[in-house]
Amino acid sequence: MTLRLPVHFVFTPLGNTVDVSSPGLCRRAHNIRCSSGKSTRRPQNVEGEFYVDRSCIDCDVCRWMAPNSFKRVDGQSAVYKQPKDPRERLAALQALLSCPTASIRTETPPSDILEAHATFPIPINEESIPGVYHCGYHSEKSFASSSYFIRRTGGNILVDRVMQQSLCGCNVLRDDVADHNLWQKHFKCPRIIHELEVTADTANVEIKLEGSGPWDFLGPDIDLIFTPGHTEGSVCLHLKPLKVLFTGDHLANSGKGFLNVDPIYNWYSGTLKAVA
Q1: What ranges do the domains of the chain cover?
Q2: Which one of 11, 35, 177, 203 counts the least CB within 10 Å of its CB?
Q3: Of 68, 70, 42, which Cα lies nearest the Cα of 54?
Q4: Lowest-pLDDT range, 83-92, 252-261, 262-271?
Q5: CATH fold label, 23-117
Q6: pTM of the model
């Protein structure tokens, strides 16, 4: 699954960038959990350096970030194959750093953890979609929603939020609004939310979308598309020049080359019609 929750986005002022040298991230990289005994190691893990403990919330992050090492076994993630080369090891370390509950552990402190930390934000594909990055460092407060950073001349955009003491940006929609005030205070960036999503916690958000859109006020390259599905006020962000659509739980990559609409996460109609 590509994105776990309805898309949330914020328009950050031109010049704001992702700071991968954030002290908060460095602290987390230094303090990565290592084994204090095998009492928490799931028996479904294969033997070896990396493993998943019993605190896993089955959010899927490690499985799509490092599919050669992690898979779902008995309702939680597990290491089914230890990394066999530097590329797979890096992917496993990136998944370890991104795990929202720090459920991925190593038997000994990884000496290359800071090198893995320095790879964030991770370019999705520098050739086909330049300027689009996966931020990593998922937060348990948003059930591990994936955060993406869009670098553009008209102003940078953060899609979803990242962990507090993390990369940059704010949060904007009902399912994932934890700490959004902290990010807005730091970056002075206007937050965007649909009026149907406003709660007491998001009443002071700077921009509230009204009606059914679409909205193009962020520039000719961005469309905000009203897609009620997972929530009544869900909105997708379409990066038109690169043909990239940031969706949410209502519409996701199936992993088999086609889009999937999961009725479990869709309680409102119109999603497919809106994004068609």
Answers
A1: 9-20+120-275, 23-117
A2: 203
A3: 42
A4: 262-271
A5: Alpha-Beta Plaits (3.30.70)
A6: 0.77
